Amino acid sequence: MPSPTPNQPLHAQHQVPVREITLGLLGCGSVGTAFLQLLERRRQVFDDMGVRIRVTGVLVRDAARPRDVPAGTPLTESPDFLNECSVVVEVMGGTSRPLELLRPYLRSGRPVITANKALLAECWDELRPYALAGQLYYEASVMAGTPVIGPMSTVLRASTFQRLQAVVNGTCNFILTCMEEGHTYAAALAEAQALGYAEDPPTLDVGGFDSAHKLAVLARFCVGGDFAYDQIAVQGIEALTPELVRAAAQRGERYKLVAELRREDGGWHASVSPQALPADHALCTAGASRNAMVYEGEECGPLFFAGGGAGGMVTASAMVGDLLDWLIGFPGHVPLHGLEG
Ligand SMILES: NC(=O)c1ccc[n+]([C@@H]2O[C@H](COP(=O)([O-])OP(=O)(O)OC[C@H]3O[C@@H](n4cnc5c(N)ncnc54)[C@H](OP(=O)(O)O)[C@@H]3O)[C@@H](O)[C@H]2O)c1
User: Which of 119, 271, 286, 296 has the smallest CB count inside 10 Å?
Assistant: First the structure.
């Protein structure tokens, strides 16, 4: 038997037939661009699996705009390519337009990889059956490239959920850190916008709604697969003053926008609100530009996850990971089946 040649792809060494996968991409902004770049960079991994990824269409609003994407990328303003895709990656943002595009595609039983927490949080009534069927992959939707959805949808189910606390919005982290340095809320927000950290309008971030979207996604692995987004009490950071931040510092505390799920009065209480936490609390020491989550289960004890929670390539790394999971044959992220109390 001939010995394998080290530089040859595994499928060539072992005569695995090459399988062509047609992939459609909805959106080519920060995450979509990085996703295409990472597909190129990890080509050897796909080669080793005997898979060739063919991108059949990349939907954008303006196909003529120059972009930093691999040569030959089929940019288009028409979603017709969805008919011929075996997998779709959604990174366009919003809720109604992506749902409208994905609806017929999902109905035909094909898989979707998405980073869109707003879509998952707000359109769950319609998406949940597809998630239960294992068709939805969404590791990147919460804490981007820091894996939390994977463990929560698999091994952590063995433990009885008790409590979750998380800091999942980098823009608020940045603003609160600036306020600790003496800036007003308005000045800190203006700085975040000037640096491109905050959208205009910034309501989704500073109003707490982005954190609430992420908490809704997480809650479906903790307390019930039909957990609704509007069950979350949401308060943003807009009313925080430098005086409050300074007083907290004098008590040895720091303000964070905390997404929390805990037992209260015999039920589950979900909230997003600014909280002054001890400065040595795990959510404070994770680092200003990072996301962090403390997950408490009765049997597994407290667990701590921290890492990058935004950025094109950080997010794309989780999405290419989801694509690999699908190719290997793992189902998507399946929520709990019923509302458990
Ligand atoms: N950025 C992050 O760090 C991050 C992290 C985690 C999750 N996410 C999620 O990932 C998704 C994408 O984020 P992003 O930062 O990459 O957004 P982005 O930079 O604004 O990119 C959005 C892309 O979608 C296209 N698009 C939007 N609406 C469209 C429409 N109606 N028809 C056709 N194309 C449309 C845009 O086309 P044009 O380029 O032509 O305008 C653009 O290419 C969002 O759901 C976001 O919440 C982002």
Answer: 296
Q: pLDDT tier at 197 (50, 70, 90 boundaries)? A: confident
Residue 337, in any domain of the structure:
no
Determine the straight-line distance between the first and last CA of the chain, rounded to whole angstroms. 60
pLDDT digit string (tens) for 27-84? 999 999 999 999 999 999 999 999 999 999 999 999 999 999 999 999 999 999 999 9
Distance CA 234, CA 211 (A): 9
CATH no. for residue 201?
3.30.360.10
226 plus 293 within the same structural domain:
yes
In a domain? residue 4: no
Place of tokens 């909280």: 275
| Ligand 1 proximity of 82 Cβ (cutoff 6 Å) | no
Which of 25, 75, 92 is the pocket-test mutation for ligand 1 (most atoms within 8 Å of CB)? 92
The alpha carbon of 5 and the centre of ligand 1 are apart by a number of angstroms equal to: 42
